[in-house]
Amino acid sequence: MLTVNAVAAPSATEPLIRTTIERRDVGPNDVLIEIHYAGICHSDIHTVRGDWGPQHYPLAPGHEIAGVVTEVGSEVTRHKVGDRVGVGCMVGSCRECDSCRRGEEQYCREGNIGTYGAVDRDGTITQGGYTTHVVVAEDFVVRIPDGLSLDVAAPLLCAGITTYSPLRHWNAGTGRKVAVVGLGGLGHMAVKFAHAMGAEVTVLSQSLKKREDGLRLGADHYHATADPETFEKLAGTFDLIINTVSAGIDLNAYLGLLSVDGALVNVGAPPEPLSVNAFSLILARRTFAGSAIGGIAETQEMLDFCGEHGIGPEIEVISADQVNEAYERVLASDVRYRFVIDISTLA
């Protein structure tokens, strides 16, 4: 076993603290990664605070991991020592179900193994990227292109792939009108991706306070949803709407913004059920759908796309001692647009 430094939650109600955790020995198909940067996702906060169910503590969160391979198992063929690599939201799956065979491990029928807070194959609880090192099966490690710095690459492993996957699946591109609801950690990546794919992009935000940012990031239009006229003016406009907001919205109002055969896709995860009037769908053959992260192959595709097009998140790099402050700022929407921990400050 390898003992490594970490920032972890001792319980659901206490601040995160510096501590140590144990990593398994490197097996034949494993790689040992020295973590350089770890992004902070809103999911980290929900998980460590028990919002999505009871957890085992201490728990080191973090599923936006970027670093360098320092050791490989005897049967590893995909990675070598010195490679720049990343790990996202999952570190395992059954690998045998239809979804896994299609390369969609995120939809594993048995449930994929989350990077932290999940039960691993050996019965231990997985620990995430707020640590100096991690041991991961090679099949769940992706390559980071040379054109992406590691700090910028880290949030792509969740915020990036969570928005890239539905945009690809629902064919965002030239001639398509795409709206993004919310301009936060997920939303700002959706805007960048949709723009790079060639779509006409609109941001739908509560107010116009981030309008300048939205246009700079690649949006063609920006509208305030607090203005009722927005829903009248844009009725029947969009082919695709990506909703990144993890709070309740009036789905029927947003469905009314779709054209015939349009799709509203949720990537945000509100805690309460959302209500849909069937006629909001029926009268224009509209679709209301959801989307998780991508599989490993699609995550690699996304990283390569970012390297080719020079796409990355807007980040604020912090030290390990600033994690609790960062959590409070995330909850207050006081970040533009993703915090990234410099893991060297944990050494």
UniProtKB/TrEMBL annotation:
Question: Please, which domain of life does this record's source organism belong to?
Answer: Bacteria
Enzyme Commission designation: 1.1.1.2
Against InterPro entries, the record matches this protein to: ADH-like_C (IPR013149), ADH-like_N (IPR013154), ADH_Zn_CS (IPR002328), CAD-like (IPR047109), ER (IPR020843), GroES-like_sf (IPR011032), NAD(P)-bd_dom_sf (IPR036291)
The record's annotation in Pfam families points to: ADH_N (PF08240), ADH_zinc_N (PF00107)
Q: Which reaction does it catalyse?
A: a primary alcohol + NADP(+) = an aldehyde + NADPH + H(+)
Q: Which UniProt keywords apply?
A: Metal-binding, Oxidoreductase, Zinc
Cofactor(s) required, per the database record? Zn(2+)
The residues covered by the Enoyl reductase (ER) domain are 11-341
One annotated GO molecular function: alcohol dehydrogenase (NADP+) activity
Family, per entry: Belongs to the zinc-containing alcohol dehydrogenase family.
Q: What is this protein called?
A: alcohol dehydrogenase (NADP(+))
Organism of derivation: Marinitenerispora sediminis
